[in-house]
Write a structure and sequence with these properties.
The chain has about 350 residues and is α/β, with parallel strands linked by helices. It has one domain: Alpha-Beta Barrel (TIM Barrel). Helices cover about 30% and strands about 15% of the residues. The protein contains 10 helices and 14 strands. The strands form 4 sheets. The protein has an 8-stranded parallel β-barrel with strand order 3-4-5-10-11-12-13-14. The protein has a two-stranded antiparallel sheet with strand order 1-2. It holds the Pfam family Oxidored_FMN.
Length: about 350
C-alpha cells in the first residue's frame, strides 16, 4: 500500500513525500507584482512538503484580478522570484508557480493599466471586490476577440518561460475557482457563438490551447493544471453537461501529457473516480475541509498520488513535524489571509 510519506517522481524530479502545499492567494507582493523578502520567508518556512504550489500569479497585466498579487511576466518579477524559489529548494521541496489569469474577476482599479477586464463574454460575475478605495461591484468585462484569445495563450506561454527562468520546477495552470479558464468552461459565463463557445469541445478549447502552448514552451513534464469540477461560485454554473465536459477535457489533457492534474474536489464522487481512471500521470487531490484523521487516506486507497493542503499548512509552518509527532495544529486566522504584514503570515509559531 502506498503511503503519503513515500517519495514520488514528478516529471524529472524526485519528491521526498506526497504532501502538496496548495496555492493560496495572500496579496503581499509589491504593487509592481514583484515578490518580497517576506514572501521568501513565508514559503521557505513551509518547505519540507514534497511540492509547494505558489499563490495565483498573473501571466500579464490583463491577468491581474486582486490587489498586490505577484506576476511572472517581466525581468523584475523573474529576478524577485529567484530568492523565493531558491529558499524553498534549499530545504528540499520542489516549487511550481501557479499561472492565474483572473478574467472577469478583476477591477480596473487593481491593474497596472486600469483597463476593462477580459472574459469570454460581457457578463459580470455579480459580486464585489476590494480595490484601493474599498469594496466595489465588479464591472462588466469586455468579451475577448479572437486576437485577445490568441494573445492570452501567448501570455501564458511567455509567463511559463519566465517561471522556469526564475528557477521554478514547473507551472500549474489555474483552470479552477471561477477564473478565466473556468469562465470559458461554464455556459453561464461563456455565451460565445464562435469556436470557443457552445459545445463541450468548444468551451474546452481555450484550456487545451493554453495547456498545449505551455507544454510546448517548457515541456509537458513541467506543465500541470488545476481544476474544480462542480464548483459553483461568483456566477459560475457548469450546467448539466459539466461532468461530460470534464471527462472530455481530462482525456484531451492526457493526450498532451501534462505532469499532473490537481483537482479541488467539491462535486460528484463518481466524476472524481472517472477522472482518476482517465488520468494516468500524477493525480493531486484537494478536499477542502479534510479532517486531520483523513490525511493520507486518498493516497492509501489509490484514488490520488498526492494530497494538497491549504489552511493547515498556512497556519503551521512545521506541518509535517506536527503530523509526525501527533502534536496540535495552530488554527488559521482568516482576518489576516489577504494583505498586511507578517501577522498571520510568517509569525505562526513552530513547535
Amino acid at each position: 500500500m502506498t503511503d503519503i510519506w513515500d517519495p514520488i517522481r514528478l516529471g524529472k524530479a524526485e519528491l521526498p513525500n506526497r504532501f502538496v502545499m496548495a496555492p493560496m492567494t495572500r496579496s503581499r507582493a509589491n504593487q509592481d507584482g514583484t515578490p518580497t523578502a517576506l514572501m521568501a520567508q513565508y514559503y521557505a518556512q513551509r518547505a519540507g512538503v514534497g511540492l509547494i504550489v505558489a499563490e495565483g500569479t498573473q501571466p500579464s497585466e490583463d491577468g491581474q484580478g486582486y490587489l498586490t498579487t505577484p506576476g511572472i511576466y517581466n525581468a523584475a518579477q523573474v529576478a524577485a522570484w529567484k530568492p523565493v524559489i531558491s529558499g524553498v529548494h534549499e530545504k528540499g521541496s520542489r516549487f511550481y508557480i501557479q499561472l492565474m489569469h483572473a478574467g472577469r474577476m478583476s477591477h480596473p482599479d487593481n491593474t497596472p493599466h486600469h483597463r476593462q477586464a477580459l472574459a469570454p463574454s460581457a457578463i459580470a460575475p455579480g459580486t464585489e471586490m476590494y480595490t484601493p478605495t474599498g469594496k466595489k461591484d465588479i464591472p462588466v468585462p469586455r468579451a475577448m476577440t479572437l486576437e485577445d484569445i490568441r494573445q492570452t495563450v501567448q501570455d501564458f506561454r511567455h509567463a511559463a518561460r519566465c517561471a522556469i527562468e526564475a528557477g521554478a520546477d514547473g507551472v500549474e495552470i489555474h483552470g479552477a475557482n471561477s477564473y478565466l479558464i473556468h469562465q470559458f468552461l461554464a455556459p453561464s459565463a461563456n455565451t460565445r457563438t464562435d469556436e470557443y463557445g457552445g459545445s463541450i469541445e468548444n468551451r474546452a478549447r481555450f484550456a487545451l490551447e493554453v495547456a498545449a502552448a505551455v507544454a510546448d514552451e517548457i515541456g509537458a513534464d513541467r506543465t500541470a493544471i488545476r481544476l474544480s469540477p462542480g464548483l459553483a461560485m461568483w456566477g459560475i454554473d457548469e450546467g448539466p453537461e459539466g461532468p461530460d465536459l470534464y471527462r472530455y477535457l481530462i482525456a484531451e489533457l492526457a493526450r498532451i501529457g501534462l505532469v499532473y492534474v490537481h483537482v479541488m474536489h467539491v462535486g460528484s464522487e463518481d466524476l472524481l473516480h472517472d477522472i482518476r481512471k482517465l488520468w494516468k500521470n500524477v493525480f493531486i487531490l484537494n478536499r477542502p475541509g479534510r479532517a486531520r484523521s483523513a490525511i493520507g487516506t486518498d493516497v492509501a486507497s489509490g484514488l490520488a498520488d498526492m494530497e494538497s493542503y491549504g489552511q493547515m499548512i498556512l497556519a503551521n509552518p512545521d506541518f509535517l513535524t506536527r503530523l509526525k509527532k501527533d502534536a496540535p495544529l495552530n488554527q488559521p486566522d482568516p482576518t489576516t489571509y489577504y494583505g498586511g504584514t507578517e501577522k498571520g503570515y510568517t509569525d505562526y509559531p513552530a513547535l
